[in-house]
Amino acid sequence: MDLRYTAEQEAFRKEARAWLEANVPKDPLPSFDLAEGFEAHREWEKKLHAGGYAMVPWPVEYGGRGSDLLEWLVFEEEYYRAGAPGRVNQNGIFLLGPTIMEVGTPEQKARFLPKMASSEEVWAQGWSEPNAGSDMAAIQSTAIRDGDCYVINGQKTWASRGAYAHWLFGLFRTDPDSSRHKGLSFILAPLDLPGITVRPIQKINGKAAFAEVFFDEVRVPVENLLGDEGAGWNVAMATAGFERGLMLRSPARFQSTAGRLVDLYHAARNRSDRVAAGMRERVARCWMDAEAYALNTYQTVTRLLAGGKIGAEASLNKIFWSELDIEMHEAALELLGPRAELDPQAPGAGDVGSWLEGYVFALSGPIYAGTNQIQRNIIAERLLGLPRK
Predict the structure, then answer these.
(1) In terms of domains, do 66 and 149 share one?
(2) What is the domain range of residue 316?
């Protein structure tokens, strides 16, 4: 792996930086967990798409730029450097999109990817159920073939972006007599079909980040099956690989947080605040871990460009970045002391910023994309070859 950027990559960086500096909104957008913010972020996504930066590594015919994953990493560095808005359609562009690229038909690629890249259609993730959270093999919602349609019945919960999304991708049991991971199929469903009820789930701050989605005799065309019938588990594992191992959490996200943490540490020292013993080393470790994650991601991308695949080692990545995110935010809250509880707009808040909100979100990291307990089981069984208990 050569860690030096090519002249072409440096030229791309310069071009992307100039575009972002000219186009990133001067004021932060409202949260995309609110109806107003959801639409504001969609408008930003449309601007990204028009500029050719919506999905840098996708083919041009599918709404991308036709670059490789290394240029995507360069773009992500510039994106976070510019403080650009979060990606409201991350379930689509970072998870489902690469899966469609891998297993979708030409017709599915042409139908879904361009509208996904432009965020004309925003996607919700529909895997979890009331009795099937991280254990997706326990899914009970059914999709029974009836002519040229699947008739879907059941419930999905904790559907990310589900409150305002247009489409949902999920696993459904197409063989009602099957059990565990067998007999599952990966199906794409528009959320405006008759028989679908969407109930937003509000977080403690009142924002609707998730939704419950109920299916009552919902008819979905068979052409919306992604991959083969009954092979949904394998398709979902490909999606989970993107979620845990590469696309969903680019290293630039954590490098940006680590940089802000270093600045916060220096600000505390400059104010002559009492900084706890060992905090200097703790902050330095966070920064080094963020850099290590970036280097590991570059190694992964290099392997993919050489024809490799993302496998069970994605679970290592997921544990690392989710626990790093918590550690960085906990360190920040300790540096802020009692001020950490202040609203950023409160008098005297100073450099409080969004650390508290970021910390609360970071706590969910070891849960979503498969709990870290499940990831450790995967590592033990599939990477280390340890026997089941």
Answers:
(1) no
(2) 249-383
